[in-house]
Please model this.
Amino acid sequence: MKMVKISEYLYLNSDFIESVEADSEESVIITMTSGAIFSPNVSIKKVLDAISGSEEHLERSKYYSLIDKNRNIYAHLITQDD
Model:
């Protein structure tokens, strides 16, 4: 799993990104394999750089899933190392 920073508050798992379309010069439409759609106000270049692993977008973060005793995932937590 590779979490990529798309914008200040939007991180996506790049394994589940189905398509990225330019909506305007500073806006894109990101479609996920689940059908979810995101429309952040960032350029398509920034999104594609983030997905491809550009150094500018690499995050030092840890990803945790909170799982109950029945193995149901009920929350995800992303933390950043300083």
